Amino acid sequence: MNLSDAAHRYREKRSRHPPPGFDKWYAYAKARDALVPETFFDQIYHDLGPFWGMPVNDVRRSVRGFSPKITVRGGVVDSDAKGSYERVSGLMGMLEELNKEGVEVPDVDLPLNVNEEIAMLVPWETMETAVEFARTFMPPLQDVVGAFSALEDNGMEEGIFDPEWLDNRMYHKVGGPYLGPRPLWSLVQPACPPKSATAKGELMVDIWHQGHTKGAHTVAALLPLELPANSSEGYVANWTMASDVCERPELQGLYGSFFAPKSMSVTQKLFPLFSASKISGSNEILIPTFSSFNASTTASRLPWNEMEMELHWRGPASGGAASRLSWRRMHRHRFASMLNATHVEIAEAMLHAGNETTVGLGYAGNFRLLPANAYHLDTQKGGRMAEWVSGWADVGFTDLQCDEPGDNGTCPYSNEYFSVKEQPGDVKGQYKYTAVLDGDTGDDGGELVQRLVEGRVVLRASVYKQWVDARLVPWTHFVPLDNTLVDLYGIMEYFLGTAVPSSPPTFAHAHVEVEKHEHHFQTPHWDEEVEDVDGGGEAHEEHGRSVDVNEAQSDSGNGHDAQAQRIAEAGQQWAHQVLRRDDVLIYTYRLLLEYARVVDAKRHTMGWVGDLFVEGP
Q: Any idea where the Glycosyl transferase CAP10 domain is (predicted)?
């Protein structure tokens, strides 16, 4: 693919001319051997689309009056909050790196979400109006403006823009007394489409009032009792839907980020606000972080056949504020409980307790084994699951992050169930499986990219969107998990088999009903063929290739180690091609060009059309 092809695909997909500087951006990507299919940048157009439907002066005024923000003028990167926030410093470093590499970064103001949580939940009707008023233009060549305007006042009044932040307390509108807690979910609901399950669902206000929670809203009642809806016999069939909070109303009581955010500062006003992550329904503009920039520098040290048949995870008990009221509803605590043999042993006993409310409930009361063995797990038969889990799971918290810390950093309300587990020395490259779980703001430190580069099978559960999502295919590059984690055991039994692994791995030859699982692991093909910028057709052989269990036999006893290896190696190879430091900068560069245009007063006539001029004889 050459520059002309890239510009043609842009016009075909975006119904606009590429932005000014598109030719230089393409040259920058080509010089770094980057893959640049137009689909890789879909998120940019989704995020910026509504601003085409707003008066440009309104957009510019909100940007000028917001703090904190990063400014770029004549290639000089500065901020009104320099040194105050890690995210500001990190993004400034990336922009300065572009400057060092000779990129002409356009003059822009970049308002930044420096909080850990989501910050913008604009009501759905407001967003729909903005999108409806957005128009695409393809002006005649003679009318196209090929350069950005200078950033000047244009008669706009100076002043501070007030996003009208909403915190976790509700008051009477006219400075009245404190009314009570404001659930974050009360702001998520109006940001979802009116026909979605969340918008039509109940707001569980009672779960914030200890001692007054309805029976139907307790943790035990919200935990799944059957296979997830919209799944393929219990396994994620559509990653976009599985991670869409607008279709998962139960997550308001089963996910720490929603039930107990560590801080809450949300606006319902629409203006450009850059952030590392967002959820379905939130309206921030996604931008790579400095953690993403550095994540691809890690590397695995061992070949697959020398790695341990083990799922290893260490991390803080983040993803919300772990308090006496909240911890049982937090997803990281659920994960740690599910892979603790003692907790699993109690859950096995509770399968036969005869109480409908507590059937299959784990020791901490924050997960359950499905009754009637809905996943057809051999390991759930005969009370063997706890021993099986203990053979391959090495999971623990590095910091309990207690709301009411006691001695040695333990939590008085949960120290019966959890303790701090040290990170074993030199584990990098030693284990085959890992999990990437949301922290306070999704993927907290570039873990997804790090683990892919290391060549592990990545099990991913998330409600957050990131800039990398358009580049990764579930079941090809990573294994998607339902956000309740109900499918975790089924996935691990498929890959590991039913015996307790040892090193080197050995498996019993017990019969397993493979036909019940085979079609779950077929992955989608991409709609668009991926080419490299030189058009040599040497792009990614694994791209769009299914990890198809139909062709698999029991390759390690009754496990499927070869299938796991294919996913790990496909993810690693793809990360080395499209998630490099160069790719982070290429995405950021493209985003800056598009953003600079959408806030320019001449935006409807701006573009790059160098490929459309035909030289005379």
A: 556-602
